Task: structure prediction
Amino acid sequence: MITENHEFMNDVLILALESSCDETAVAVVKNGRDVLSNVIDSQIKLHSEYGGVVPEIASRKHIERISQVTEKALTEAQIKLKDITAIAVTYGPGLVGALLVGVSFAKAVSFASGIPLIGIHHIEGHISANYIENKDLRPPFVCLVVSGGHSHLVIVRDYGGYEVIGRTRDDAAGEAFDKIARALGLGYPGGPAIDSVSREGNPEAICFPRGKVDGAEFDFSFSGLKSAVINTMNSSRMKGEEVKVADVAASFQRAVVDVLVERSMEAVRRYGFPAFAIAGGVAANTSLREAFQAACEKERVAFYHPSSGLCTDNAAMIGVAGYHEFRKGVRSGYDLNAVADLKIGMR
Result:
């Protein structure tokens, strides 16, 4: 049994829940910067045999685990529920069934305890992950969010103040990684698999296209690159030639990284902010980080990124975003619902 802890009486403590995809995650965050607990119950092994996330299985697993994960997060933080200032929960975008589990649970806890409820945008959470370990990072700055479902270039004008200036027109970067990894027989999730095997390959072995979107200098397009990779593999097989997996993976990864870095640095030069950050699952890619480090040094801007564990889906990032929304007076009613295609900056 946890005894009452008066140490936190003057602090803002956010209980945060994240269930937008295949991670059941709960965290306790203090004052928007300090993570007291960050528990993640991963479903990767469960979904890997299917080559991707199965929405119905993900939702069912969230239902089974969310209560236990919440109890564990409170225990690790060494606080009681009554010490919590507000409850923050991801309500979009994501898999609607998975989102509904987190939202419904958060609303029930809020109603039973009388603790205020705050709905949080998943992508705004990813951006906010940068504040946890980078204590000196302050808006304004440019942020690239790259994950399995999203590729966004965002101007962070203030805490909770966002302007999307670029987005993917087709596949997200992480989605392209997953599809090419599957085609190469590397399994799921594709990002880490390609990152690993690429270290053994030649990134200049194959010149894959770098897609551009006419009239939209900050937008991304990866469908043409994906098709080019698959066509190259099919052509080699038809000719009876060996498909050099490491070279294909390395060349593909180089093409993605080049596009992400080029668009991002164009935005950095255009807006003139002193800092640039990356966020989302693909932000853990080592080649991407190295390329951005070099590019930011060349542009003389500070480069920020979360640690690898905070790049993938987690609840600590939702707690940070929830803190800033709480400070602005944002509260959600019990009519809060899951929104699968929620746009950033919308409430």
In short: The chain has two domains: 6-128+311-327, 139-305. The radius of gyration is 21 Å. The longest strand covers residues 34-42. The CA atoms of residues 151 and 173 lie 6 Å apart.
